[in-house]
Each structure stands twice: as C-alpha cells, then as structure tokens.
Amino acid sequence: MRVVSSANLTSLTESWLEDLRWCRTRRSNDFMTTDIITRDSGCCFDFRRTDVVTVTPWLAPIVWESTFDPVLMDAIFKPQNLTIAATVFAVGKYVQFLKDFLKTSEQFFFIGFNVHIYVFTDRPNDVPKVQLAPGRKVSVRVVQSSQRWQEISARRMEMVHTLLLELSDSTHFIFCLDVDSKFHGRWGSESLGELVAVVHPGYYGNPRSRFPFERRTKSRAYMAPSDGDFYYCGGAFGGSVDQVLALTQTCSKNYRDDEKEGVEAAWQEESHLNRYFWENKPSKVLSPEYLWQDFKPRNPEIRIIRFSGVIKNYAAIRPNV
Ligand SMILES: CC(=O)N[C@H]1[C@@H](OP(=O)(O)OP(=O)(O)OC[C@H]2O[C@@H](n3ccc(=O)[nH]c3=O)[C@H](O)[C@@H]2O)O[C@H](CO)[C@H](O)[C@@H]1O
Ligand SMILES: [Mn+2]
Known about the structure:
30% of the residues lie in helices and 17% in strands. It has 321 residues and is α/β, with parallel strands linked by helices. The chain has a domain at 73-202 and 231-262 and 285-317: Spore Coat Polysaccharide Biosynthesis Protein SpsA, Chain A, CATH 3.90.550.10. The strands form two sheets. The chain has an eight-stranded mixed β-sheet. It has a three-stranded mixed β-sheet with strand order 6-11-10. Strand 2 (83-90), helix 4 (98-108) and strand 3 (114-121) form a beta-alpha-beta unit. Helix 6 (156-166) packs antiparallel against helix 7 (241-260) and helix 7 (241-260) crosses helix 8. The structure holds uridine-diphosphate-N-acetylgalactosamine and manganese (II) ion. An alpha-L-fucosyl-(1->2)-beta-D-galactosyl derivative binds at residues 200, 270. The active site is at residue 270. It is found in: Membrane. Keywords: Glycosyltransferase, Manganese, Membrane, Metal-binding, Signal-anchor, Transferase, Transmembrane, Transmembrane helix. UDP-N-acetyl-alpha-D-galactosamine binds at residues 89-91, 94, 178-180.
C-alpha cells in the first residue's frame, strides 16, 4: 500500500491549512499568475477566487463556484456520451427523503448526461415514482435493514462495491450520496475525476487537530495527530468506476476487520474513507458547496449551495439513538 506521509508533505500541508484559515488576508499579488492566464488566454470567464484555496498541495483542483466555466466543462464532457451512476441508500424511515432527493436530482444533477441512480432500500414499494428526463434511469435494489444506523451507514461501502462489480463498462463515473439531502444548484461535469472527495462542511475552517478522525491505534481507520489533509465527508464521494471499486473494497474490508476485533471507528465508514483519502490522494476535491448542511448559516465563501443535508429529527427516523 502506498502511504504518503513524508515530513515534507506534512509541513507543506500544515502551512497550506494556515492559508485556508487566513485566506481572506491574502492579497492580489499572490494571484498574478491567474491574472496573466486570464488575459493571455482571451477567456472572458472570471475564474479568480482569492478568498479560498483552489488547489491542494498535490495539485488537485478544489472546485468552488467561479473556478470553472460550466459551459466549457460541458462542451468537453458531453460529446463523450458518459454515463454517471449515483448510489443512494434509503433504509427504514429514510425512504421519506427519496422523493425530494430524486426530484431535485432531475433539476440539478448532471443535466444532459446519461444518469443512472441506484436506490438501495428495504422498502421497495415506498420508492416514489418521479418523472425522469430521457437518458435518466432509477433502479431499485433491495437490501436488508439493521437495528443500528451505524451499520446501515457503514455497510453502504460493501453494497456499493458489489454493485460496481456488476456494472458493465458502459458506466464511467459514480457518486455515492446521502439520501437525507436535496440538490439546490448545478452538480455537473466539473466534479468528474478519477478519485473525488468532498470537504466536510463542518470542519473546513478548523485546524487539523480538531478534525474528528479515528484516533485509536486499534482501528484500521487510525490517523496520527500529524496526519490528514482535509476532513472529508462520508455523505458524498465518487470517481471512476475502477477507483471507487478499489476504495469501497478497502474501506469495507477495514470496517469488517475492525468489527471482528470489536472495534467500530468513530464515524464508521466516514473514518475509513478519511484514512483511505490520506493514503490515496483524491485527484479532485469538491468544496463544501457540494455537501452543505441546512442547519448551518451560509458562510460568505459559499457562493452557491449545490447539495445540502436537510434538517432532520434523528430520534424519530433512526432505528437506534
Ligand atoms: C454530511 C455527511 O457527510 N454525513 C455523514 C454523517 O452523518 P449523517 O448525520 O448525515 O448520517 P445519516 O443519518 O444521513 O446516515 C447516513 C446515510 O445512511 C443511510 N441511512 C442511515 C440510517 C438509516 O436508518 N437509514 C438509512 O438509509 C442514508 O442514506 C443516510 O443518508 O455520518 C454518517 C455516519 O457514519 C455518514 O458518514 C454520513 O454520510
Ligand atoms: Mn446524512
């Protein structure tokens, strides 16, 4: 397994995290290169952002509104006739979230692409019928419920892995999404990449020491105090079929192996996902625009909310507390 944890990268990352926290104090001199590229290319699209960090220390883009041209992105990707899969789990009472999830995906998620949404549920009869545009499809897969929400959430990794083993070459990219959410703005071709992570909306302004990584060495999701780039969310991630196949295989195996030893990571599959992304750097990082939370006031750097978790009464909808 490739583990990138050199002192260099760590110190670079620490200084970059400083940048993220103090990004608003940075001034235009730092961004002269961007000016020059804009002028020389003759591009009239203003993709400068000086208030946020838009590239990782390993040179992966961090996607924020106004860092890309959606028309140009679509002109590149649409002719490739891609199929984008999405997985969403609606087990037990979470089936109530499906209607809004599916309806809003029709308005905002990869419009103009072939889209195949796989709904995993124990209540197939309660899956709402939503009018779909041509080229878009919803399939239902029946799964077992569990008495523990932690298990429902964590087992998604292995079920997505099984699905991916069955998919033919005609599916190119996949996103795995939480169902208790709605789309509010474009989520499209700008998000495509081999391995795609979304920065968790709750922690992006925090220092690394406050990231809720698994800190017990007995778990396979363990992260040392000096480890970590971002804290990524479990509610949205994706990439090419091959890359997500590898990710789900590793995360589900590590979750299972922990389980055999009576260990459950602090945030279940989200903890294993964070460990995976530490060892396997995402090729593209999506800003918290791609998974906001309705209960959070919108911060000024969030110019658009594309996908956001709804406010829910955990006690009323989860099988356990
Ligand atoms: C914003 C974000 O990143 N959310 C993550 C977070 O909390 P959340 O509080 O958003 O977790 P959650 O209650 O939405 O559960 C995660 C997902 O599991 C499914 N589900 C859960 C319970 C249930 O009874 N039925 C059901 O179908 C459903 O798709 C749901 O969206 O922590 C979870 C725990 O590990 C997952 O990592 C979530 O992805
Ligand atoms: Mn959720």
